[in-house]
Amino acid sequence: MKDVSQLQMMTYASLLAALTAVGAYIAVPIGPVPIVLQSLFILLSGLLLGSTWGVAGVGIYLLAGAFGLPVFAGGTGGIGRFIGPTGGYLLGFLPAVYVIGLISERKKQSVLIDIIAMLCGTIIIYTCGVSWLKVLTGMDLKKAVAVGMIPFLIGDALKIAAAVFIARSVRPVIGRSRI
């Protein structure tokens, strides 16, 4: 990265972890998996911080929740959230942010690359989340997709659009306009 110190990256990772926690408070309960804004900050963590620091930021967020801080959807926390209906989505955040960061680091940055990176990350989150929801609840795959993915597609498309705009605006400020 260009002229960005380790301390700055730690600060950015911590800031995005905090924003992810705030995004989790913006939740609309619609079933076993609520609609939340936290996934926007997961996408931004990968785009803005890259694979290593993105994973660090999301790891901070997940550890804070695992230790009981109320940073998950609806102001909940605790290790038990990982074995509940949203556990697969939470655990899917780590590989998703890694892949988003990896793609955004390896390719010349463009809107198309950002969108592809976030689509890959979103697919990872859905794969982990829906799979875990299916196993945990005993739903068949069709029902798990209907409950754990379909209601979120439009919102996630809007989050991807917002993340493209935000990332393109913020990258030059944080010194990540070119990798």
Characterization of this structure:
The chain is mainly alpha-helical. It has helices at residues 6-25, 38-66, 87-106, 111-137, 141-148, 153-174; strands spanning 27-28, 35-36. The protein has a single domain (6-171), classed as Arp2/3 complex 21 kDa subunit ARPC3 (Orthogonal Bundle), CATH 1.10.1760. The protein contains six helices and two strands, in the order H-E-E-H-H-H-H-H. It is globular. 39% of the residues are buried. The mean pLDDT is 91.
Number of domains: 1
- The number of helical runs is 6
Number of strands: 2
The main sheet comes to: 2 strands, antiparallel
Give the uncertain stretches in residue-range form.
none
**Rg from Cα:** 16 Å
Strand order of the largest sheet: 1-2
- Kindly provide the name of the CATH class: Mainly Alpha
Structure keywords:
179 residues, mainly alpha, Arp2/3 complex 21 kDa subunit ARPC3
